[in-house]
Amino acid sequence: MTASLKPIKPKRISDQVFDQLRDLIFRGKIKPGERLMPEREMAEAMNVSRATIRTAVQRLADMGLITQRQGQGTFVRSHDDNLQNPLAKAIEAQGISLETLLEVRLGLECNAAALAARRADENDISALTLSFKEMEKEQAYGRLGSQADSTFHMAIAYASKNPLHIMIMRDFYDYLFHGIRENLESLYQERENIHIILKQHEKILSAIQKREPEAAFNAMKDHIQFVVNFYNTRSN
Q1: What is the pTM of this model?
Q2: Residues 100-119: what's their mean pLDDT?
Q3: Were 78 and a residue from 33, 82, 152, 158 both cysteine, which residue would form a disulfide, CB within 3.0 to 4.6 Å?
Q4: How far is the C-alpha of 16 from the C-alpha of 156, rounded, in Å?
Q5: Considering the chain, what percentage of its residues have pLDDT values greater than 90?
Q6: Are 82 and 179 in contact, with CB atoms under 8 Å apart?
């Protein structure tokens, strides 16, 4: 029995600080373009040394999640700062089409939905539910913008509990929902589409809440395929 057990390694304090700050950024609690509190204040709030904060912040910078501006402070990377987004640079350099991007979404997000159905905790379910309610509010006013959609899908990515997947999705959505926003907004200009898309998101949320990975996978697939078909029809 003991041969199969592995010793538990204590987690470094700087890793715990890094995890907490990263999660706040991923969940959108600290928003793009927002300034982090000064190092001294952060150290006091988290009851750790400034050196620990410095180590964690440097890791966030190395990941491209934050930018440090001389004399101004440290900021969460802005959506518009595509110079910091290697995926955006690769997309623009190759002139990749919207249809190609949507095909990538099929692979990324169907798997994310299935993983979320297996791994989402109560905080993830609450975040998804809150995002969906925001979408419902927008529908009541006859609109459903890309920001609400982006927040919902990123909540699913976070619920997958796969840090690499979350990073890829964040860069992908930075570009998809902010770099080419004008192309996407045509989808929401048709009122009937707003109703259909809201129902699709409700189905995805329900499958995740019920812990049904296959249903979540298929619901996401149906949603993204609807978007693909919409743009294919417009381009013909």
Answers
A1: 0.74
A2: 91
A3: 33
A4: 23
A5: 34
A6: yes
d(CA 197, CA 192): 9
pLDDT at residue 1, rounded to an integer: 43
The interaxial angle of helices 86-94 and 163-174, nearest 10 deg, is 50
Does pLDDT of 59 surpass 80?
yes
* Alpha carbons 131 and 14: distance in angstroms, whole number: 31
What CATH number should be reported for the domain whose range is 11-76? 1.10.10.10
Q: Which CATH code is given to the segment(s) 83-235? A: 1.20.120.530
Residues forming beta bridges with residue 234, ordered by sequence position: none
End-to-end CA distance of the chain: 64
Output the 3-class SS for the chain: CHHHCCCCCCCCHHHHHHHHHHHHHHCCCCCCCCECCCHHHHHHHHCCCHHHHHHHHHHHHHCCCEEEECCCEEEECCCCCHHHCHHHHHHHHHCCCHHHHHHHHHHHHHHHHHHHHHHCCHHHHHHHHHHHHHHHHHHHCCCCCHHHHHHHHHHHHHHCCCHHHHHHHHHHHHHHHHHCHHHHHHHHCCHHHHHHHHHHHHHHHHHHHCCCHHHHHHHHHHHHHHHHHHHHHHHC
Residue 86 has a pLDDT of 62
Cβ neighbours, 10 Å, residue 12: 12
